[in-house]
Amino acid sequence: MNIFSRRAALVTTAVAGAGLAGALAIGGAASASTSHADGYAVYTSCTGVSGSITISPGLHALKARTVQEVLTGTTSGCSNIFDGPLSGTGTLTAVMSGSATYKAQNLSGTFTINWPASSGYNPSNGTLSTAESNGIETVTGSVTSGFETGAEFALQYVITGHTGKPRSTKGVTAETYTNTQPLTLSVNVG
Hints:
With about 190 residues, this protein is mainly beta. It has 2 domains: about 35 residues; about 150 residues. The chain contains 1 helix and 9 strands; from the N terminus they run αβββββββββ. Strands 1-2-4-5-6-7-8-9 form an 8-stranded antiparallel beta barrel. The two termini are about 20 Å apart.
């Protein structure tokens, strides 16, 4: 089922529910307020994302460098609004670059989400950007091809460990991370 079929199914369900609520209100059995489905709804999410990041050249404490980061991770606890829980794990891979220091890593690049095999979903591919604040990396982007094309991508994570020293010549060349907010794909249903 593509994103437009899913959206139509969601709207059909909402309209049917509104009709039932209206019928109940007329009969006096219940009352319902009008609800508008404007904005974004999370269609697919994963509650767990963790893994590692390789960095070249390494991140330095004071000196900004143009770096490339390759983030790899395992996703778990995935579910879809229509299909429910997706058993098994998947993977997230992102290739990002930009000017960064150890304390400020604001990068952009591409990502691929390989969903759990049980889902039968094609991979989701897209573009992303990151912004760091108070040690939390906020990732936002869009799915440009594959499963849920057109959906908005979001993830927050925190660094849990690193290899190398930020004040050394080589800097920090690898990090581990875990998410602080679920990975989500959201669709504009308004």
